[in-house]
Design goal:
Elements (H helix, E strand, L loop, with lengths): L2 H9 L2 H10 L5 H20 L10 H13 L4 H20 L14 H6 L6 H9 L8 H14 L3 H6 L5 E2 L4 E5 L5 E5 L2 H18 L19 H14 L8 H14 L4 H8 L4 H4 L1 H17 L4
Antiparallel strand pairs: 1-2, 2-3
Helix pairs in contact: 2-3, 3-5, 7-8, 8-10, 8-12, 12-15
Length: 304
């Protein structure tokens, strides 16, 4: 066992969790191992994001962890098992008196995501993309990042991992390495091209201090932007734009797909741009599209 795992086990009461699973819950060795692996992965993520103990875990950071699993490309069944492991973990810790609140109570499940993805209206997206003001030091970066995230429908792990060489501005394309390092080319429009070009020319050379590793989006210290950093930037501009919906990086991806379909895009083309291996995954957006069609019918049909 590594020193890192020992630290995680102490801070997150993993021994008590495993003991209770085996002795009180009567779980099988296979279930114990699967739950142990899931909880250790969560604990490692939490520690990486500044949470040192199970007592410091908030509902917000757990939601971000679940979206992290989704961005990794885990199947819905695997994410559901992870959520089940987290709920069992907290139920045991509460029973043992190790923690006093349960932040898993309001965790969404993949079933809910598949039917009710949060999307922004075109007007909300326009307000969000206009929110970075040029008197802010990192406005060029932030505007480019938001334009590219929405304009190409990227997962957060994809847009913070983009290399400078992956943005082919002259061709109007971005090269994306998604799940399983599978490469895809996604077209980007004039707004994204212009915003990225300005950032790459004017601001990124100023930020780069030899630690950028060729990554496109850097933080104020010149290092590659982290997932948490991207979340904070997005939240800032959601608030500035006066958007009251719960918006995550995945919301921009949902909105990208929904707006394409509302505009008449072919489902197969959207599947290719999103990097979905199975078109059934893309079909989630047809549910949103049907709701849009219903709203149009209700608004404009004389017999609705």
């Amino acid at each position: 066992m590594s020193d890192e795992e020992r630290t995680l086990r102490r801070g997150f009461f993993l021994q008590a969790f495993e003991d209770a699973l085996a002795l009180e819950e009567g779980a099988s060795p296979r279930t114990i191992e699967a739950y142990r692996r899931d909880v250790i992965r969560c604990a490692a993520y939490l520690r990486e994001h500044g949470v040192a103990s199970a007592r410091d875990i908030s509902p917000g950071i757990l939601r971000e962890f679940v979206y992290h699993l989704k961005d990794l490309g885990l199947a819905g069944s695997s994410i559901r098992r992870n959520i089940s492991a987290l709920r069992t973990w907290f139920r045991i810790m509460i029973a043992e008196g190790l923690v006093h609140t349960d932040p898993t109570e309001r965790l969404d499940s993949p079933q809910r995501w598949r039917t009710l993805p949060e999307v922004l209206s075109v007007d909300e997206v326009t307000r969000l993309l206009a929110a970075p003001q040029l008197d802010e030091r990192l406005a060029f970066r932030d505007r480019a990042m938001l334009e590219l995230a929405y304009g190409a429908g990227l997962r957060v792990s994809e847009w913070i991992g983009l290399a400078v060489k992956d943005v082919l501005l002259e061709d109007g394309l971005v090269r994306v390495f998604g799940k399983g390092s599978k490469e895809r080319l996604v077209p980007i429009g004039r707004s994204a091209i212009g915003a990225v070009a300005v950032y790459a020319r004017e601001l990124r050379p100023v930020l780069e201090r030899g630690h950028g590793k060729g990554i496109l989006f850097l933080n104020g210290q010149g290092r590659p932007l982290t997932r948490m950093g991207a979340w904070k930037i997005l939240r800032k501009y959601v608030e500035q734009a006066g958007i009251e919906k719960a918006v995550s990086p995945h919301t921009l991806r949902h909105s990208f797909a929904t707006h394409l379909l509302e505009g008449g895009a072919d489902l197969r083309a959207v599947q290719e741009m999103l990097g979905h291996a199975d078109i059934a995954t893309t079909q989630i957006y047809t549910h949103v599209d049907r709701e849009y069609l219903r709203s149009v019918h209700k608004q404009f049909h004389p017999r609705s």
